[in-house]
Amino acid sequence: MTISLEDAVRGVTEKIAITCLDTCSSCGGTGAEEHSKLMTCDACGGTGQVRMQQGFFSVAQTCRKCGGSGQIISHPCKTCGGQGRVEKRKTLSVKIPAGVDTGDRIRLSGEGEAGLNGGPSGDLFVQIKVLAHDVFERDGKHLYCEAPISFVDASLGGEIQIPTLEGKVKIKIPEGTQTGKLFRLRGKGIKPVRGGSTGDLLCRAVIETPQNLSKQQKELLKEFNKSISGNSKQNPLKEEWFSKVKSFFDN
Ligand SMILES: [Zn+2]
Ligand SMILES: [Zn+2]
Q: Which one, 68, 79, 182, 195, has least CB within 10 Å?
């Protein structure tokens, strides 16, 4: 069953339609018409096995006619052809608990295929697959997202909005925030289905370079650039990188 991340986090009840072998209602799973008798299988003489000659060897194989039981039904059920089971399409309601992840399996007791000869039904396992989300990436109980931040906001610091599963929250970002900085929002991740503490939301800052600037904006930036260039306190990464590259070529 494929579900959205929101449904996986909050839990959901979903309907699924499956086709499976169910007990034949005409014969109650016995495979026999009323007043039918069990007779000794004529193909194997009641042993349940037939011998096949293969070169020098004689190999015993399960009798196909009686399925190894050695007995056949005199009047097989017309509905199921003596199988005792018929294919049925059924719709089931599956309760998916909050916190499930891809690969988790939900067991529905007795909703599997009917047993042979009217035996008890097996279980149905529903395997969960959680769809990729537009905003959040999941890693276990933690959620990851990215927040684009203008280079001005990143430089001056301020408030930005971060999406969470319960809506947007405002957080403060410090002056000089760089791309890749992770802001951790504790407890805004996922509560695991098997218990334990709720995970965190980690938001990665991505500083955006402005595009399609006007002539005036470009002039302002050039002016600004003159004031900043060569200043190792204001551009530490760039100045450090330049000096590393320089010493590499000088040696
Ligand atoms: Zn039947
Ligand atoms: Zn047989």
A: 195
